[in-house]
Amino acid sequence: MISKRADKFTSFIVMDVMAKAEELERRGENVIHLEVGEPDFSTPKVITQAAIDALQNNKTRYTHALGLLELRQAICDFYFKEYGVKIIPEQILVSTGTSPALLFAMLAILDKGDEVIVSNPRYPCYQNFILAAGGKLKEIKTRPEEGFVYRPADIKKKITPRTKAIFINSPSNPTGIVMSKEQLQSIAQFKKQYIISDEIYHGLVYKDRAHSILEFTDKAFVINGFSKLYAMTGWRLGYCIFPKEFSNVMQRIHQNFMISASGFIQWAGIAALAKAQKDVAEMARIYDERRQYMLKRLREMGFVIHVEPTGAFYVFADARKFCKDSYKEAFRITEEAKVGVTPGIDFGSGGEGFLRFSYANSLENIKEGLDRLELYLNKYF
Length: 381
Ligand code: PMP
Description:
Blueprint: H1 4-7, H2 13-26, E1 32-33, H3 45-56, H4 69-83, E2 92-95, H5 98-109, E3 115-120, H6 126-132, E4 136-141, H7 152-158, E5 163-169, H8 181-188, E6 194-198, E7 220-225, E8 238-241, H9 247-257, H10 263-275, H11 277-301, E9 314-318, H12 326-337, E10 339-340, E11 342-343, E12 354-358, H13 363-380
Parallel strand pairs: 1-10, 3-4, 3-5, 5-6, 6-7
Antiparallel strand pairs: 2-8, 7-8, 9-12, 11-12
Helix pairs in contact: 2-12, 3-10, 4-10, 5-6, 5-9, 11-13
């Protein structure tokens, strides 16, 4: 029998939309994918070459459970260069993507019944990491006009003696909103809780710059990885930065559950940090071009963009004028207009009536997808 805990894990609806789109494609239909949050770019050659070299040099064994020292040192150097924060390799766990790193962070801090604050809407997987570690979700409804960023007063009201952590995600999936320095500072004032800062979209910021939570507090777990910035989703490489006192427990957790991340892929990660700046800058330039195009078209069609997204590769558009049930509408758009879109409800009840559009697709495809969507809207609304 399936355990009660496992039975509570929610599905990741975007994957269901993608499965529907793929089913249509198998029937010979052409579908434009604006649902997936995965770079359409190939991994930069300097990174691929480093992996090939590592394989040819037999870097095919387990590594230190926390990850190759060379990679952890490169991550320390990167955080110092980007944010001026000093961390040491003993504060880093390299894992197979940010996803397992996040699960291990939850295992390290939560006891059964501990509470974790998340915003609603938010990245859908968070709740399941928390549940898996025995924690309880405490949701805070955020407001579209405020870019769905928390109000500290709302957090204060939710905190109890059992509240162990507060999740933030900037630039955000699904909203693309980048939190300001002041907003991050206002979250860092909560000193009794750990701030779990998902910084996976750092580097994909098109105005100003992103700040790391570590600039404002040490009582944080930073989640970051290579999937998005370096177009390396399938490589599975990510990391967690944690307070020093967690070094030994994170090492024990990883020794047992993963042994280590894959060695040759970690060498590719070192090359990404050292040599892929030009490729990243070019990808960011192209994302920004698509972002501006998509925003313009969606606004012309009548979608409301409450706060302009300036990071990641998503537009979270208010479609309440067109739809009440985002789940039904997203599937109908996928099936009839042949454009994959993600329903806002995937991100929690606070996302109902919204649709998430990803611009991790070529400008040509985005244009075609939005043309199809426009025809669809003209037909029904
Ligand atoms: N956090 C956020 C906000 C994401 O969008 C994703 C990927 N969709 C992840 C974490 C997980 O990334 P990965 O496991 O590929 O590093």
